[in-house]
Amino acid sequence: MSDAYSEAGVNIAAGSRATALMKDAIKATYGAEVLSETGSFGGLFSAQALKAMDAPVLVASTDGVGTKTMVAAKMGKWDTIGQDLVNHCVNDILVQGAKPLFFLDYVASSQLVPEQIADVVDGCATACKAIGVALLGGETAEMPLVYQSGELDLVGTIIGVVDKANLIDGSRIQAGDVIIALPSTGLHTNGYSLARKVLADFDWSQARDDLDGLSIGDILMNVHRCYLLEINQLREADIDVRGLAHITGGGVIDNLPRILPDGLDALIRLDTWQIPPIFKLIQEQGGISENDMFHAFNMGLGMLVVVPAAHSAR
C-alpha cells in the first residue's frame, strides 16, 4: 500500500517524520487545560475556567499567510511564517476582546519535506507558547498536482473567549473619539502578491540605504506583530477601548469602516506617522497610487485603537 501511495506522489514516511520532528514543540505549548496527547484524533481542552465568566462567548477565526509562503521559499526561511499565522489569527479575535485559548494549523504542499514542515509548525508553537495558547491540533497534507512543486500553503484557526459584557464591537464609538495607531512590523501577511511582482527584479539579500540598511528579504520576512500584550495593558489601565481594527487585507480603507457605527466616518491624518520605507519603495517602483497603496497594505499601521478623547493622552 505504501509503495503504491508513494508512486501516486504521497510519502507516508515523510509525513510521519514531520510529525515526529514537531512533537516536542507542540507539547511545550500544553497547559493543564489540554487533556489530550499529541496525535489524538481530536484535541481536548477543558472548559472549566469558563465557569468563572458570567456569560462566556466563544470567538473563532480562520486565516492564512497568503503568498508570504512564496517569500519564505525564496529566502529559504521557514521558521517564522508559523509565527505570522498565529499572530494574525490572535489579532483577528483580539479586536472583539477575546482571549485566545487554542490554535489549530493546516500545512499543505505538493511534496512533504519533513524538516521544512517541522520548521513551520515549530514557528506556530513558538508564537503560541509566547502568549499561553495551546497548539491543540492540526493537519499536514501532501497533495501532488494541487500545489505547485516547492510551494506550501498555511492556514490556521484560533478559538478564544470573552465575557459578553466585555465584547468590543465598535458600537460605542462616538463622534470625537480618537484613533491611536499601533505600528506594524512591515507588510505583516498582506499585499505580498503585489509586492513580489513589483520587487521581483531586485536583489532581496542586499542591504539598502533606502531601507535603513536592511534588505528587501529581511523586511518582507518580518514577523506579523501580535498586539495582545499592548491591548491587555490598555484595558488593565482602565482605558475605554471602544473599537479595534486589525489592518489586514484591504488596508485601512476596508478595515476601519468595519467597526464604525452607521453614519460615522473617520479621519486619518497622514502627517501623524512615518510610513516605513518599504512601502515607499513598492509605491515608487510599481507606480502605484496612494489610494491603491492604502487599499493593499497596512502602510505601517498594524492595529487601530479607538478610545475616548479624554483617554488618548493616558
Describe the structure.
It is a single chain. The protein is built from eleven helices and seven strands. The protein has helices spanning 2-7, 12-27, 68-75, 81-94, 114-130, 192-198, 216-220, 228-236, 251-255, 277-286, 290-296, and strands at 56-64, 99-109, 134-142, 152-163, 178-183, 243-246, 301-307. The strands form two sheets. It has a four-stranded mixed beta sheet with strand order 1-4-2-3, with helices on one face. Strands 5-7-6 form a three-stranded antiparallel beta sheet, covered by helices on one side. Strand 2, helix 5 (114-130) and strand 3 form a beta-alpha-beta unit. The longest helix has 17 residues, at 114-130. The radius of gyration is 21 Å and the shape is flat. The termini are far apart.
Write the layout of secondary structure elements.
Blueprint: H1 2-7, H2 12-27, E1 56-64, H3 68-75, H4 81-94, E2 99-109, H5 114-130, E3 134-142, E4 152-163, E5 178-183, H6 192-198, H7 216-220, H8 228-236, E6 243-246, H9 251-255, H10 277-286, H11 290-296, E7 301-307
Parallel strand pairs: 2-3
Antiparallel strand pairs: 1-4, 2-4, 5-7, 6-7
Helix pairs in contact: 2-5, 4-5
